[in-house]
Amino acid sequence: MLTKMNHLGITVVLVLLVGVWAQINVLRPLCDSPEAEEAALVAQDYLNAQHTHGYKYALNKIDDIKIYPELDGDTYVVEVDLLETDCHVLDPTPLANCTVRPKILTAVEGDCDVVLKKVGGVLTVTAFKCKTEESTEDMCVGCKTLLPLNDTTGLAFVHASLATFNNKAANVTYTVLEVGRMSSQIVSGGPIYFAEYIVVEANCTDDACVPLNDVMAVRGICSASGLNADHTVDCKMFSTLMPVVDANSTAAAALPPVVHVHAGSLSRKHGLRHHKLTALHNPQLSGHLSAESAESDEVVPVVPAVVDTTAAAVAPADPTPATDPVPVADPALVAEASASASAEVPVVVVKRDVPSKVVGTSVPQTGPISSVPRCPGRVRFF
Q1: Which domains are delineated in the chain?
Q2: Per-residue pLDDT tens digits for 169-186
């Protein structure tokens, strides 16, 4: 009995020592170091792969990074700021070629905490949570103002502009797959409207159109401006299996992710003025996630996807419709919903090459942080 007690005591002491050692030996590399950049880009690609609505996001700044050396592999905790681009998640354009929306057009920012595990040189995302919100800085009087995605006047303009495009299309009829964003602007003659929306090839009988349930159906993005009776509309079609090429000229075929088809005239994103990143994925209830980036109003099941960093964007090929966001008020329910939704999701991220333009060098240190500012890192856009 005494021997068992001694063994138990030794085990407890070892566990405590390992915990204390991990806390003392937290590595704090520069936010612009290659290893910080590597982790942030893996996080960016993974978050985009989970994002099945709206637009792709690009890394803007690394706010902080901590590395916890552990026996089974180092744990990275990185805080990143992302900015919405003008490339929809269905758009096969490489992220590097997408344009970040300027502030004057109402930029949308994502503030994310991401936990990664590095084993054998491979970074794997294990948990994250994000807060997505509009940038209200530098807004001007008379600028375009975002409308809710279920705004009836804006949706009427969407359908009017699509009818104009369909009248000019040859032997193909399109229907709305998703509204990306809508805005209005007050001018001397009154409000004018602007809209971006995704269209898909459809079968139509009389006035009723049903989207083709086929991954090879033609999809595209339309941009329209003006009034219901007087407007311009331009649509760019996507190639369903267009090769995705990154900066290193490597390519991979990517199927489009599933998005919700809007039934009737109302968006499923009631009252929201932009599409949010998936708010929470924390199947193992990681204690590394801070509370500041939590959003409890939208929990979306994580998409089973392997992020291949040889491609600029990877999208899931699940042919079934995605489930609606689940409103959750209780933080405990948030964790439970996220855990149940992603318990069987294989989350693997391949180590990616860091661009040669990375600024700074990695200077991990243990113990007290030096007076040299390490974070946040450089701002890429604004």
Answers
A1: 155-244 (3.10.450.10)
A2: 888 899 999 999 999 998
